[in-house]
């Protein structure tokens, strides 16, 4: 039996990304391949900026000199129903993106604080979905082939199908409507989205686990008496990194949109806490008078969704060893091969069985042939 390492096993077919095989070099090779892609670099930079804005929201608001909950009545036109004074929603040196109609709250401060809520809810919900999906998928995929294993696999698969068939958005609305308002809404949103959105990840993990458990290195681990938990942790999970990471980059913006939709309906984050969906909800009646108030959160949400979608596609290519090499990387490889070939051509040919004597002062080195024992005259 030939043992195969978990990092270089044969790749399995996957919708999201190949499982069971990663490029040579492990995470460093994946990172280099991801950075070689233009879309990957752009997505990483955009995601880094989004995280930086969310983490430094208080400092950014302080840099502008505003806060998200202060009212500025003097900046509103009472004759027009409370629309901001000036062009583009009152944009100026003190209010970089203008102010909200009817309240006069600074739009830039509420936007950066809303990034913390939207991104935090999306990340928390995605982590919960990954945890539940991995547990259910691994349990179903590693179920023994005996009668009890088949029953366990069938039960978990039917539960996954049932969770996948549920109308997630409507169930989220129903659950948010019955929970008391005193419960923290961001935490409640994360729990609801996690409990209703784990089924797709569980299905992917189950399918990949059933493929990976047939590999030779898993069979070798079984023969050595390794426990199911050790096999799942040491042999199966490394092969699931590619599809799970790719799907995570895809499902995270979906959770951001779900949070924005629920907050838009008034069931998510409630005032005075800022959220992009809540900003869109209050801006619907002002899109003709103050289009800036609608465009700022809408375009921000659109850019975030496109960024994570591009990151998911770049991760799929980076984890796939059979994907075409980026043009920049291919050119570097061609130049390296050409340099090696030129160096080999310039090196002088060395006769077989020849040794080079040390040169004396002022004299070049001379190659002297030393005959072997088989070539000596009898």
UniProtKB/TrEMBL annotation:
GO biological process: transmembrane transport
Domain called ABC transmembrane type-1: residue spans: 115-312
The species this protein was found in: Streptacidiphilus jiangxiensis
Protein name: Peptide/nickel transport system permease protein
Low complexity biased stretches: 16-25, 340-354
Protein family (similarity comment): Belongs to the binding-protein-dependent transport system permease family.
InterPro entries in UniProt: BP-dependent_transpt_permease, MetI-like, MetI-like_sf
Compositionally biased tracts (Polar residues): 1-11
Pfam families per the UniProt record, alphabetical: BPD_transp_1 (PF00528)
């Amino acid at each position: 039996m030939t043992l195969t390492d978990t990092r270089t096993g044969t790749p399995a077919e996957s919708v999201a990304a190949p499982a069971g095989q990663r490029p040579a070099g492990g995470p460093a090779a994946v990172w280099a391949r991801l950075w070689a892609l233009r879309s990957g670099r752009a997505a990483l930079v955009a995601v880094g900026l989004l995280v930086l804005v969310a983490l430094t929201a208080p400092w950014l608001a302080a840099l502008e000199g505003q806060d998200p909950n202060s009212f500025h009545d003097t900046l509103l036109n009472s004759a027009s129903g409370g629309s901001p004074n000036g062009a583009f929603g009152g944009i100026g040196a003190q209010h970089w993106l203008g102010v909200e109609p009817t309240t006069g709250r600074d739009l830039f401060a509420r936007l950066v604080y809303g990034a913390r809520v939207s991104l935090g809810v999306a990340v928390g919900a995605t982590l919960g979905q990954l945890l539940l999906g991995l547990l259910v998928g691994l349990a179903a995929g590693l179920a023994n082939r005996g009668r009890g294993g088949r029953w366990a696999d069938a039960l978990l698969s039917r539960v996954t199908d049932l969770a996948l068939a549920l109308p997630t958005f409507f169930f989220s609305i129903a659950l948010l409507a019955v929970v008391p308002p005193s419960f923290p809404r961001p935490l409640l949103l994360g729990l609801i989205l996690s409990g209703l959105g784990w089924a797709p990840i569980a299905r992917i993990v189950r399918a990949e686990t059933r493929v990976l458990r047939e590999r030779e290195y898993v069979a070798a681990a079984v023969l050595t008496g390794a426990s199911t938990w050790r096999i799942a942790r040491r042999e199966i999970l490394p092969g699931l990194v590619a599809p799970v990471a790719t799907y995570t980059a895809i499902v995270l913006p979906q959770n951001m949109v779900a949070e924005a939709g629920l907050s838009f309906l008034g069931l998510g984050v409630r005032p005075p806490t800022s959220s992009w969906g809540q900003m869109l909800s209050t801006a619907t009646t002002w899109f003709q008078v103050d289009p800036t108030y609608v465009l700022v959160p809408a375009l921000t949400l659109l850019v975030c969704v496109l960024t994570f979608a591009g990151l998911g596609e770049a991760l799929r290519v980076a984890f796939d060893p059979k994907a075409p090499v980026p043009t920049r990387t291919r050119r570097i490889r061609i130049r390296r091969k050409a340099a090696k070939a030129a160096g080999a051509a310039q090196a002088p040919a060395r006769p077989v069985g020849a040794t080079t004597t040390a040169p004396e002062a002022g004299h070049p080195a001379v190659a002297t042939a030393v005959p072997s024992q088989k070539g000596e005259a009898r």
